[in-house]
Structures are given as structure tokens and as C-alpha cells.
Amino acid sequence: MDNLGNIGTTEEQIELMDVATNFCRDKSPMDKVRALIDDDLGYDPDVWKEIGELGWLAIAIPEKHEGVGLSMAEVVPIAEQMGRNLMSTPFGTTTLAAQALLAGGSEAQQAEWLPRIAAGCAATLALSEDSGDWDLANITCSGKLDGDSIVLSGKKQLVRWADSAELIIASVKVDGNVRFALIERSAIGEGTLRRESIIDETARSFELTLDDVAIPADALFDASRTRETIEKIELAAGLIQAAEMCGGSQAVIDYTLEYLKTRKQFDKIIGSFQALKHPTVDNYVEYEKARTHLYSAAYSWGEQGRGEVAVRMAAAQAHSSYSRAADRSIQFHGGFGFTHDCDAQLHRRKAIFDGALIGDAAYQRSKLASLLFD
Amino acid sequence: MADKPSAAELKEFGDAADAWFKENTVRDPGFMLPLTFMEVSTDQQFDFLRDWQRKVYEAGFLGASWPKEYGGGGMHSEYQRVATRAMKKYDAPIMINAIGNGWAGPLILDLGSEEQKQTYIKGMLTAEDIWCQGFSEPEHGSDLGNAQLKAVKEGDEYVLNGSKIWTSLGDRAKYMILLARTDFEAENKYKGLSFFLNPMKIDGISTSRIKKLTGEYGFVQTFFSDARISADCLFGGEGNGWSMAMKTLEYERGAKVKPVGGYFVKELDVMQIVELAKNSMRNGKPLLDDPVMRDKMTQYMIDIQALNLNNTRRRMPQLMQDKPMGLPLMNKLARTELIRELTEFSLGFQGTKAGYYVGDENAVDDGYWHRSYLNSFSATIGGGTSEIQRNIVAEHALGLPKTR
User: For labelling alongside A271, which of A243, B5, B212, B371 has CA 20 to 30 A away?
Assistant: First the structure.
């Protein structure tokens, strides 16, 4: 089986890991995470500005487009620390939009948008529809050529941070073929975005009604690159969410450990009971496996064949380990675990949301099986 | 300390090792070769493996980085690493003298006297002197610190009474690393223990073989009945037995003493399980078309790949910052449990043939999978059960309080 990758790091990756560890911890303390749940925007604009100034949105953008010229491998430690500290911002969607542009955008589209994104402008993708299918090609939204413009129709769901995005890249069918349409903020009218009620209260997501949204006829990705764009989006999204979930697993395990080390029942610290400590060790083992896969996926990102196997393994393991660790965290916190005040639920809900975005562990495994056995 | 070799020097050595193992490795001697040093059952197996270890040593591919003055090769540890890689590449048989080379040897090299090093090291490398381990007792398995075998000092001798169990190769060994109680009044159970380099072929020591759940032999129980050993056999001083025993575990990680090289346990080649799955049928179709088996096999591939990569990650401090003891301490638990699960899983591939066992011509792979599954418990129980391992990870990596 020669499509199993290796593990390694880059110097830049480790430097960014150190910086991101401190930044995300300092800028996203739990009381702030809690306060932002009730905030309309859902993130601190000052922090978002700082993320832009740190150059984090430029990391995986080539230098010729005013980026840093590194790769998604160096985005991983940042997304990991954001997930660990439940720091929700348009960082993931913006990074993803840049990757989509790199895979499918024309020279002109890249030259127009990548420098703007590198400088801190938020962007997002509009992929999901009412079918609930994780298959990005199974869509019904459409675009019709009308003179110099294309008129869109249909509804997109789970468009994260759409109200903040200057650019939305939406998948639509044109003449029966899947195409990616660049929708600028200015093209979206009043009432086309409806804020959705989502399981992860730290994120923001919108339903986007495309009906009557018109874009210039040249605001489509090249038809010949649809397939590789879909593949790139799946892999980049898988890697980013795997990183966030991995960081989240670490956080929820630490949060559980803290409780197990302090809570007393029957005159004993409950962490001394094997009924609690043994499953906690098992969850920790699963988390370390997820982190190993994460940094293997970062390392193998650019390799044909190996990249997809590594990313899907990372996504599958991160989703199963995050879900399990958060589920047990609720249980092990007892009555307090059943309350909204207990942070375990934030993680449990985020794990569900992240799985919904990219495909849960079972879905990743079904994709992997074909890559490994067929 | 030997100089770090250049890439060219290392390549030359590696090529020589490759050539040697290619030419000399015997994979099928006409009888079943043990996968671990704990499974050596027949004289034929024992003689073969003992000869094999001596041959590898004499070729310079075992103990290459141990000190020259005691029988090692005196070379940089990179050379040994390359030699071990060649063994793996050609699927060479195991090194039989596990307790000597992996446990007693590093301890003696680290803390032993000049005389002890001269006495013991070379014989363990040549496999002339087989070593066994006397830690567990019939009544004290997981609670090792509570070992009760009595060692009473009389003049310049200790008199030993009691019993040790799971002493693999105990009936063939010349020496045993022995954990015995020298002080029954000590303030706690650990402080009453002492550590001995104990001769086996003396009056008062007898062994009886244990028939394993597989039907094979490989372990023995050792009985001590007024066995007298020289007080010089005491190692590390009276009352320091527990810390000596714990030290032998540390050497496994290879940080303090250069690894002797080779391996004592053959890692299950998991790709063989994929092959078995691919060659198995269910309901007239390939087994891996069955969605349940397909999903399970995929999850196992994820687990296998994670544990394989963990071996590399363990050497990367930049990815070990948060809980540095986590990965090293969880390795035994994760790996042995996975192998148990995988080998059990493989029985389900075989349909009706899962009913056969070693020795029947209808058995799949001559019962290899059944035998591997049943033997896998030796690793999930021996060396600290998985339940004890979870306590160790919880207490030493995650900082949870002790279970009392």
C-alpha cells in the first residue's frame, strides 16, 4: 500500500505553532467565547484585524499574489490552536476560498482576489444544499447566461460567515455542469441572507437565496478545472476542520481532566476511580492518534494520492475522537455536564457541526475504503 | 563515544548488512518459528534461534554500539540502527535473548561494576548465556511491588524461598534478573525489595513448564527451595529492588544505554491481514465488499497507520510538547490492544474455516491467525496488563490521582 504517507514538520510550522498557541489562548479566553455566543457578528473584529496583520490569511497564498508562499501545512497549527480555544472567526472559510481560487480561478480572478484575501478580507464558500448530501457535485442551484451576466437561482445552506464575507464562491450548475461562481458582496441584496440556527453556537452561518442574484458572465471558474477544484476544496476543508477538531479534542480532554482532579465524591477525588480514568485514557489515546494523523496530513498535503488518504484519515480520526471525548466529558461532569454552563457541550456541539460540514468519520472512512482497497 | 558516521560510511555499512541478511536469513527452517521470545516451545526452535543470534552477533550486527571492552562493537548507535533495519527488511527471525539484551544488559552497562560487565555482557550477546526474568509471582501479578519471594542473608549468601511465574525461557536460562523481598519490616512494600543477578543452574531451583492457552509451551514457573546464592549477586544494594526493576523498563526506550539492536518480538505484518481480507469471500462476493467489514477494516487501517507514525513522532520533540510522556507511555497499551483486536477480527474473515486450528490441513495459514490471537494476550497481560497501563498513563501522563 504505497499511498500511506509519513509525518514531518517544517520550521515555519513550528514557529507558527508557538505564536498561535499564545495568541489564541490570550485572545480567546472562555469568558470571551461565552460573550461572543450572544454577539451578532460572532467574533471580535479587532482580533480578526490582528489575524490579518499577522499575515495568517496569506500563509498558503503564493508570493506573486502578495502571499507568504507557504502551504496548508503551515495553516494547520493555527487552525489547531483556534479549535483548541474555540476561537471562531472567518479564518477557515477565508483560507478555504483562497485554496479554491488557486485550484480553479483564472489568472485574472486570482490576481484580483488573492491579494485582497492575503491582506485580511474575509471570504467564504457556498456549497451545501437542501439535499444534505456531502457530495459537492450533487447540487441543483443553477446559473443561466443572460446577455453579459449570469443569473443565479436556488438556495445555498450553511454558508458560514456570509455576512462578513466580501466574496462568496458558490457552486451552481450551468448548462448541466458544476461550476464555481464568484459572488461579490455588492451583488447580494437585502434579504438574501437568513441567519441559520446552528448546533455550534460559536459559529455563524447563513442561508443564501441566489434567486435573481446576477454576476458578470466571466465570474465563473474555468469549466475544465471543476473537478480539481472540488478535490482541493474537500481536502483543504478536511485538513482545516481536522486541525480544529484536534485542538478541540485536546481542550475538552484537558477540561475533563481538570474536573477529575478537583471534584470530590465519597471523600475521594473522582479521578482516582478507574471507571472514570480508564475511559479518559482511551479518549486521550484516540486524541494522540488524531494529532499524529493531523501532522501526517499536513506533511503529505501536496503528495498525489497520499495527500487524500492522509487528510481523510486525519478527518475521520479527529471527528471520532473529538465526538467521543466531548460526549464523555458531558457524562463525567455529572449534573453540571447537563447544563449550558459546562464547556463540554460547546465542544460536543462543535464536533457535530464540523462533521456536518465536511462529512463525519463514517463518511470519511467510506471514502478511504475505496482509496485503500479497490 | 564513537563519532557519528558520515552518510557514506553509514551507507557502506547498511549495504553490507543488507547483503548479509539477504544471504543468511532463513525464514522457513521446516518448522514453525516463534514470533516472540515468549513462544519458544521446542528444542528445535530454541537451538535454531540461539544459533541465529550468535551468527548475527559474530557478523557484527548485534550489540554493534555496545562498548568494545565487554564484547560489543564499540560503534556509533547509527550503525546498529541501520543493521536492525536490514534485519526487518529481510524479515529475519527474532533475537532470543530478550531479557539479557533488552533488560539485564542495559542495567549492568548503566550501573554495574567493571567485573559484572566483564562477566555478563559478552555471554548475553552470543546467546551462550540465556537470561530470564523473575518478577511476577503466582499471587502477585499486577501488584508486582508486593512480591513475596524471600531472600534471607546468611553470612555471605542469600537463601531464597518462594516461586516466580511467567519466567519465559526459565528452564533454559543460565541467569535470572530476580526481584525478591529482603526486608519484611520495611516501611512500605517497595522498600523491602532487592534485585539479584541470580544463577539458575544451582541446587534448590527447579522449573516446571506452563502449557499456554494455545496448547504450546514457552513459559515456566520457577521454584526456589532453600536455594543459596552468593551475596555478590545482589545488584543495586538492599532495598533498591523496585527502582532497579523500574529502571529495566526505562531502557526499553533506549535513551540511557544505546539499544543492543534487533528485536525480540516480531511485529505482526498488518498488511497480511489486508491480504487475507482481500482473499476472503462472503456471500459469494469479496469480503471487503461487505460494508460492515469494509468500514471496520478501514478503521483498523487508520489505527495501524497512527501507531506506525507515532514511532516517528516520538522522536520529534516539537510535536510532543503538551504531554511529553503521553505517547511513550501509551504505546504498549495501544499497540498490544490493537494487535489483539486485529487478530480476533481476522478470524471472522475465515467463515467456517475459523473452526480449524494449528495442525489441520484445512486450517487457513496453518492456524497462524488463531495462534496469533491467542498469543496476543501475552502482550496485553504481560509486562503490566492493559488495565495497569491505563493507570500508568492516567497517573504519569495525565496527572490523575492514584487508584488505591
Answer: A243
